[in-house]
Design brief:
Strand content: under 5%
Number of helices: 10
Largest sheet: none
Number of domains: 1
Number of strands: 0
Oligomer: single chain
Helix content: over 70%
Structural class: mainly alpha
Shape: globular
Length: 219
Protein backbone atom coordinates (compact mmCIF):
# COMPACT_ATOMS: atom_id res chain seq x y z
CA UNK A 1 0.00 0.00 0.00
CA UNK A 2 2.84 2.39 0.85
CA UNK A 3 4.32 1.78 -2.60
CA UNK A 4 0.96 2.58 -4.18
CA UNK A 5 0.73 5.88 -2.35
CA UNK A 6 4.29 6.70 -3.32
CA UNK A 7 3.53 5.99 -6.98
CA UNK A 8 0.45 8.20 -6.77
CA UNK A 9 2.52 11.03 -5.31
CA UNK A 10 4.95 10.68 -8.22
CA UNK A 11 2.22 11.28 -10.83
CA UNK A 12 3.50 12.02 -14.32
CA UNK A 13 0.51 13.86 -15.80
CA UNK A 14 1.08 17.39 -17.02
CA UNK A 15 3.47 19.36 -19.16
CA UNK A 16 7.13 18.99 -18.23
CA UNK A 17 8.98 21.93 -16.70
CA UNK A 18 12.69 22.60 -16.50
CA UNK A 19 14.40 21.87 -13.18
CA UNK A 20 14.77 25.59 -12.56
CA UNK A 21 11.11 26.36 -13.25
CA UNK A 22 10.00 23.42 -11.10
CA UNK A 23 11.97 24.52 -8.04
CA UNK A 24 11.09 28.19 -8.55
CA UNK A 25 7.42 27.25 -8.61
CA UNK A 26 7.81 25.33 -5.33
CA UNK A 27 9.52 28.36 -3.79
CA UNK A 28 6.84 30.73 -5.07
CA UNK A 29 4.08 28.54 -3.66
CA UNK A 30 5.81 28.45 -0.27
CA UNK A 31 6.23 32.24 -0.25
CA UNK A 32 2.56 32.62 -1.15
CA UNK A 33 1.61 30.43 1.82
CA UNK A 34 3.80 32.42 4.22
CA UNK A 35 2.36 35.68 2.88
CA UNK A 36 -1.21 34.49 3.47
CA UNK A 37 -0.34 33.46 7.02
CA UNK A 38 1.22 36.86 7.68
CA UNK A 39 -1.97 38.58 6.54
CA UNK A 40 -4.12 36.34 8.75
CA UNK A 41 -1.93 36.95 11.79
CA UNK A 42 -1.93 40.73 11.25
CA UNK A 43 -5.59 41.29 10.43
CA UNK A 44 -7.80 38.32 11.37
CA UNK A 45 -6.88 37.37 14.94
CA UNK A 46 -10.03 38.91 16.45
CA UNK A 47 -12.17 37.31 13.76
CA UNK A 48 -10.92 33.80 14.50
CA UNK A 49 -11.09 34.35 18.27
CA UNK A 50 -14.80 35.03 17.90
CA UNK A 51 -15.41 31.49 16.61
CA UNK A 52 -16.73 28.73 18.80
CA UNK A 53 -13.69 26.50 19.58
CA UNK A 54 -15.51 23.32 18.58
CA UNK A 55 -16.63 24.79 15.27
CA UNK A 56 -13.12 26.11 14.66
CA UNK A 57 -11.60 22.69 15.31
CA UNK A 58 -14.05 20.92 13.00
CA UNK A 59 -13.50 23.43 10.18
CA UNK A 60 -9.74 23.18 10.70
CA UNK A 61 -9.73 19.39 10.47
CA UNK A 62 -12.05 19.23 7.46
CA UNK A 63 -10.14 21.86 5.47
CA UNK A 64 -6.69 20.42 6.19
CA UNK A 65 -7.68 16.83 5.47
CA UNK A 66 -9.64 17.64 2.31
CA UNK A 67 -6.92 20.04 1.17
CA UNK A 68 -4.21 17.41 1.61
CA UNK A 69 -6.25 14.84 -0.30
CA UNK A 70 -6.86 17.27 -3.15
CA UNK A 71 -3.19 18.22 -3.31
CA UNK A 72 -1.87 14.65 -3.26
CA UNK A 73 -4.44 12.86 -5.41
CA UNK A 74 -5.50 15.46 -7.95
CA UNK A 75 -3.85 15.54 -11.36
CA UNK A 76 -5.24 18.99 -12.16
CA UNK A 77 -2.93 21.87 -11.11
CA UNK A 78 -5.86 24.18 -10.38
CA UNK A 79 -7.50 21.66 -8.04
CA UNK A 80 -4.14 20.96 -6.41
CA UNK A 81 -3.64 24.67 -5.78
CA UNK A 82 -7.13 24.99 -4.30
CA UNK A 83 -6.24 22.09 -2.02
CA UNK A 84 -3.02 23.87 -1.07
CA UNK A 85 -4.97 27.02 -0.19
CA UNK A 86 -7.34 24.89 1.92
CA UNK A 87 -4.28 23.82 3.93
CA UNK A 88 -2.74 27.28 4.15
CA UNK A 89 -5.85 29.11 5.40
CA UNK A 90 -6.64 27.00 8.50
CA UNK A 91 -2.98 26.80 9.49
CA UNK A 92 -2.85 30.58 9.26
CA UNK A 93 -5.97 30.77 11.40
CA UNK A 94 -4.31 28.63 14.08
CA UNK A 95 -1.20 30.81 14.06
CA UNK A 96 -3.27 34.01 14.19
CA UNK A 97 -4.76 32.76 17.48
CA UNK A 98 -1.60 31.12 18.78
CA UNK A 99 1.22 33.60 18.15
CA UNK A 100 -0.13 36.72 19.92
CA UNK A 101 0.30 34.88 23.23
CA UNK A 102 4.09 34.83 22.75
CA UNK A 103 6.81 37.47 22.71
CA UNK A 104 8.67 38.68 19.65
CA UNK A 105 11.84 37.05 21.01
CA UNK A 106 10.14 33.65 21.25
CA UNK A 107 8.71 33.85 17.75
CA UNK A 108 12.02 35.00 16.28
CA UNK A 109 13.95 32.23 18.04
CA UNK A 110 11.48 29.62 16.80
CA UNK A 111 11.76 30.97 13.26
CA UNK A 112 15.56 30.85 13.28
CA UNK A 113 15.72 27.30 14.67
CA UNK A 114 13.05 26.16 12.17
CA UNK A 115 15.18 27.59 9.38
CA UNK A 116 18.34 25.88 10.68
CA UNK A 117 16.68 22.47 11.13
CA UNK A 118 15.01 22.67 7.73
CA UNK A 119 18.25 23.53 5.95
CA UNK A 120 20.00 20.69 7.79
CA UNK A 121 17.36 18.18 6.74
CA UNK A 122 17.38 19.46 3.17
CA UNK A 123 21.14 18.86 3.00
CA UNK A 124 20.69 15.35 4.41
CA UNK A 125 17.94 14.66 1.89
CA UNK A 126 20.20 15.73 -0.96
CA UNK A 127 23.06 13.55 0.29
CA UNK A 128 21.08 10.51 1.51
CA UNK A 129 17.73 10.50 -0.37
CA UNK A 130 17.27 6.72 -0.11
CA UNK A 131 17.28 6.86 3.69
CA UNK A 132 14.30 9.22 3.75
CA UNK A 133 12.41 7.33 1.06
CA UNK A 134 12.84 4.05 2.96
CA UNK A 135 11.07 5.38 6.07
CA UNK A 136 8.00 6.70 4.25
CA UNK A 137 5.43 4.41 5.91
CA UNK A 138 6.87 4.89 9.41
CA UNK A 139 6.93 8.65 9.05
CA UNK A 140 3.36 8.69 7.74
CA UNK A 141 1.99 6.83 10.76
CA UNK A 142 4.04 8.91 13.19
CA UNK A 143 2.88 12.15 11.58
CA UNK A 144 -0.79 11.20 11.92
CA UNK A 145 -0.27 10.54 15.63
CA UNK A 146 1.66 13.79 16.02
CA UNK A 147 -1.05 15.80 14.26
CA UNK A 148 -3.68 14.56 16.69
CA UNK A 149 -1.39 15.38 19.60
CA UNK A 150 -0.81 18.84 18.12
CA UNK A 151 -4.51 19.58 17.94
CA UNK A 152 -5.20 18.37 21.50
CA UNK A 153 -2.24 20.30 22.90
CA UNK A 154 -3.16 23.59 21.23
CA UNK A 155 -6.82 23.61 22.20
CA UNK A 156 -6.73 21.95 25.63
CA UNK A 157 -3.22 22.48 26.96
CA UNK A 158 -3.06 18.76 27.75
CA UNK A 159 0.21 17.00 27.04
CA UNK A 160 2.42 20.07 26.77
CA UNK A 161 5.66 18.30 27.70
CA UNK A 162 8.93 19.67 26.39
CA UNK A 163 10.40 16.27 25.54
CA UNK A 164 7.30 15.36 23.54
CA UNK A 165 7.50 18.70 21.75
CA UNK A 166 11.10 17.99 20.77
CA UNK A 167 10.14 14.56 19.46
CA UNK A 168 7.48 16.19 17.27
CA UNK A 169 10.00 18.80 16.10
CA UNK A 170 12.44 16.07 15.07
CA UNK A 171 9.67 14.07 13.40
CA UNK A 172 8.46 16.92 11.24
CA UNK A 173 12.03 18.00 10.53
CA UNK A 174 12.64 14.48 9.20
CA UNK A 175 9.52 14.83 7.10
CA UNK A 176 10.97 18.00 5.56
CA UNK A 177 13.86 15.85 4.39
CA UNK A 178 11.50 13.18 3.06
CA UNK A 179 9.36 15.65 1.11
CA UNK A 180 12.44 17.34 -0.34
CA UNK A 181 13.85 13.97 -1.46
CA UNK A 182 10.45 13.11 -2.96
CA UNK A 183 10.33 16.42 -4.83
CA UNK A 184 13.71 15.60 -6.39
CA UNK A 185 12.42 12.43 -8.05
CA UNK A 186 8.99 13.72 -9.03
CA UNK A 187 8.37 14.47 -12.71
CA UNK A 188 8.76 18.19 -13.32
CA UNK A 189 5.12 19.27 -13.66
CA UNK A 190 3.13 22.19 -12.26
CA UNK A 191 0.87 19.81 -10.36
CA UNK A 192 3.80 18.08 -8.68
CA UNK A 193 5.38 21.42 -7.78
CA UNK A 194 2.20 22.51 -5.98
CA UNK A 195 1.88 19.15 -4.21
CA UNK A 196 5.52 19.29 -3.10
CA UNK A 197 5.10 22.84 -1.81
CA UNK A 198 1.99 21.81 0.15
CA UNK A 199 3.82 18.95 1.85
CA UNK A 200 6.93 20.98 2.70
CA UNK A 201 4.79 23.90 3.88
CA UNK A 202 2.92 21.76 6.40
CA UNK A 203 6.17 20.30 7.71
CA UNK A 204 7.68 23.74 8.26
CA UNK A 205 4.61 25.17 9.98
CA UNK A 206 4.30 22.28 12.43
CA UNK A 207 8.00 22.47 13.30
CA UNK A 208 7.60 26.20 13.90
CA UNK A 209 4.50 25.79 16.08
CA UNK A 210 6.17 23.26 18.36
CA UNK A 211 9.33 25.37 18.66
CA UNK A 212 7.21 28.38 19.64
CA UNK A 213 5.63 26.22 22.36
CA UNK A 214 9.02 25.05 23.62
CA UNK A 215 10.67 28.48 23.73
CA UNK A 216 7.54 30.16 25.05
CA UNK A 217 7.32 27.70 27.92
CA UNK A 218 10.88 28.48 28.94
CA UNK A 219 10.18 32.21 28.91
Amino acid sequence: MANGIMQRRLGTEGRALSDRAFYLLIGAALLFGFFVIALEVMFLTDFFLSWNPTVFLIVYLVMVIVGCIMSVWSRNPVISFIGYCMVVLPLGAVLSIYLPAFTYKTITSAFLVTTFLSLFMIILALVYPRVFNSIFALLGIAVLVALMYQIVAIFTGFGNNTWVDWLIVLLFSAYVGFDVSLARVRPRTVNNAVASACAIYMDLIYVFIRLVAIFGRHE
